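hiii, so i know i said id send this last week but things got crazy w the move. better late than never?? heres the sequnce for the chain we talked about at the cafe, plus the structure i predicted for it. fair warning i was half asleep when i ran it
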Amino acid sequence: MSSRGFLIIAAGGVLLAIVVAFLLNRPHNPQPPAFQPAANPYAKAIYAEGIIEGAQSSGENINVLPEVSGPVIATFVKEGDVVHAGQPLFAIDDSVQRGTTEQERLQAQAAMAALSELKAEPRRETLAVAIAQLAQAQANLKSLVDVRDKVERSAQLDPRSISHESLDSAIDAARAGEEAVAVAQRQLELTKAGAWIYDIQNQQAQYQALTHAYQAGAALLSKYVVKAPTDGVVLALNVANGDYVSPQGAYDTYTEANAPAAVLSPGSGVLAVRCYIDEILLSRLPKGADIKAEMIIRGSNVHVPLQFVRIQPYVTPKIELSDERQERVDLRVLPVIFNFHTDPGLKLYPGQLVDVYVNEQ
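okay and structure toks below
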């Protein structure tokens, strides 16, 4: 290639570099933000992170955990349903407990029958047998006494007519007959007396023990149907038919940890916000009646005035950590609860994070 060709190629490369540099360094207008970042609406304020929850007089959302374990066989509600106290939420397989409870019921029933039998003594048929036995013993005694008397008279008339052995045997037999009559008489009195009071008391105690066992079994059986502890809204139902659930909750496939079987908001759909004030800023927090705050919905330009409700007077560990190195992992915060009123068309949900500014003045 000639020198002229190299010069043309070099000139073209320089021209291309100039064009690219011009295009890359040309100023571009910035894209407008999708929404304005949360800005402090007050001259001086405390920032806090808040979480939306159902309005309630105390506590937080209600975590429903069963008191028994087993596979879920039925669910009766769905997420978002309004439920009332005592309304069934889901049922756990109770086949084993149902059989155990029925066994305890039958044992208590058998103990009651035995107690009734003792209290009903003497039985008419048993009394008749005792009377007949006494009559038989008396008849035998009469026969033995007659034989003894005959042997004694014969011995008195002619001592050689009866041996001493026969005489002694007749006398001993009559004495044995007298004892048999005495025994039959005592047996009749014992039968008439009925069951011994201590036997009745013992059977009474056994019946009561078995009855309590049955009642405890029945109470445990009722817990296999998990019911709403209070009126509220079902925020989450973390079980389905076939899931295994225990007092530790149900296994969550996504988090790989146990979660409550159900989560209820004790309110009736009215929302509140719980914000967490850094413990370092507590000295700047106004008195309860003077607290004014505003909530900013993340991802929007919506600002919502807040109405102070109460302070939960217990400083707790922070529940949301950013994992940044400069963040204090031992940070503790004070929960402050606010109410708010919004347009029904604004979509807000319990558990949603919001930014809160609390006016210091």
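btw The longest helix spans residues 124-157. thought thatd interest u
miss u guys!!
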